[in-house]
Amino acid sequence: MMKKFVILLAVFVFFNSAAYATSASRRAMSNAARSNHSHHSSSHKSSGHSHSSGHHSGSHHSGSHHPSHHSNSYYNSHYHDHSSSQPVILTDSVQELNEIKFPNCYQHYAIKDTTTDYYSDGSKKVYTKYTLYNSDGAVLAENCKDLKHIIYGGRHYFIINNSKGYQLVDENAEPITERKYNYMTETGINRLIVRSNEDSGLFSNGKYGIIDFAENDIIPIKYSSINSIGNDIFITKLNGYYGITDIDGNEMIPNNCDSIKNIHNALLIKRYGKYGLANKYGTVILGTNYDNIKKLGDYILVKKNNMYGVWDSNGKIISEIIYKSIKLDRNMLHGKTNNDEWVDIR
Fold this sequence. Notes:
With 346 residues, the chain is of the alpha+beta class.
């Protein structure tokens, strides 16, 4: 009986020892694998990446984190999702911080934060945001997608674009404008071109107009487009038709034109298939009752009833509409008379 017990005990010890050895062996193999993977990853990252950031003297501060070609190949091979055809973002992004100093402004500065995400297919996306500070380093506005500084009447203003849309704010970043806009830019003194969202919600297509810094409507916010053409005048589009308004809201040409375009230093107007001219200040020179108006070198050729005249580049008359044809030869203007003779015009 004792002999059988000893034999059974020996068998039990043998099998338990074998099981323990197998388990220990598996743990050792797992640890070795993890160690090898950790060493492989750290060697790639330490040799392929460098990160630096600092605060330098002067008006420019930057910090960047740049992946190398070696690290990109590593991430492409280790982090690409082969189950999807969509590109996968790499684990590291490149971030650059730049300090912005505003002209004639010592009370404010901004930090421009540019982050670039790199994808496994070689593409990238760039994100930019701004943070506005006062001279004491206190944050006045953050997460701004756009930031512009304006000085008017000895005071400092900012146009910012954040989660609330575009706003005009004062030197403490307190809002001045109350309505919702998804576009705002300065155009002349105490004037802002805006696009409103009051009727259609934020970030939808709205109507354009011009306001002053007190948010008074100078040009009503009702136009499909407003384009500055210099000299404080604007081409406006309303219900598909064009007109001209000055910066103070005075209508110079009503919105009943098929088109208004620059022609040299003048404006070409088309209405009901006929053409006219306005000078660069929006004053009509020729009413829209001409068959055609077009460029002729540095001049403007005008046609009516199959006869031609010529104006200079500023819309000033050189010749009445008395010629059967007009040509420009060796920088000289020549007109063909009713007798079919070519004469010098200028």
